Amino acid sequence: MRSIITYLGHAAVLIKSEAGDILIDPFLSGNPDSPVKPDEVNPKFILVTHGHGDHLGDTVEIAKRSGALVIAPYELGTYIGMQGVRNVHTMHIGGTFTFPFGKLTMTIAHHGSAVIKEGEIIYTGNPCGYVIKLKDRTIYHAGDTSLFMDMELIGERNKITVALLPIGGNYTMDIDDAVYAVNLLKPEVVIPMHYSAFPVIKKDPEEFKRRVEEETKSRCIVLKPGESY
Ligand code: NI
Ligand code: MN
Fold this sequence. Notes:
Blueprint: E1 4-7, E2 13-17, E3 20-24, E4 45-47, H1 53-56, H2 59-66, E5 69-73, H3 74-82, E6 88-91, E7 96-99, E8 102-108, E9 114-117, E10 120-123, E11 128-133, E12 138-141, H4 151-157, E13 162-166, H5 175-185, E14 189-193, H6 205-215, E15 219-220
Helix pairs in contact: 4-5, 5-6
Bound molecules: nickel (II) ion (NI) and manganese (II) ion.
């Protein structure tokens, strides 16, 4: 079976693997672009990159209903466990662990991580990205991050098939930075994410695609929410 990547809008991605569905950053109920509701997904695994509402999203509710294993950085995973989620696996930056779907490495991301609840800010440690080594392909989900030089190292150590990169700017890399990142990571395919959910991150993914194809050796695939690769 070939793995299938479905874009659920913003930074939410569903990967169908032989070991079950892997859901990343399930911001579904709060995202008007999301093609699915939280009760329409049945993941075996949920990967969370950081505590911000547009990434942690519906993780707790989906995990409680589906029994999915939630994977997150230590502090965020501990917070998720405190919300009543039983099945949590915490990791940290640079850590690799083998799950039924394959080897997972937690990578750096330059950003913040906090849950804002009832007027209080609860910091949830470092944000992260993920390198997911499935049987048939290696997927890099950068999370929310700036451009950083160590992307070259991530590309060198992992033969990346598909890279999911933020292009929205303001909180993360913009199109300019993301094109530069593609040249460091050297993935076969890049899929843009984290754009246009809010007015301040409005970007044209077709402009990114044009530039990737002119300025890098990678291919760019723009997925609308609900579309798959
Ligand atoms: Ni964020
Ligand atoms: Mn975000």
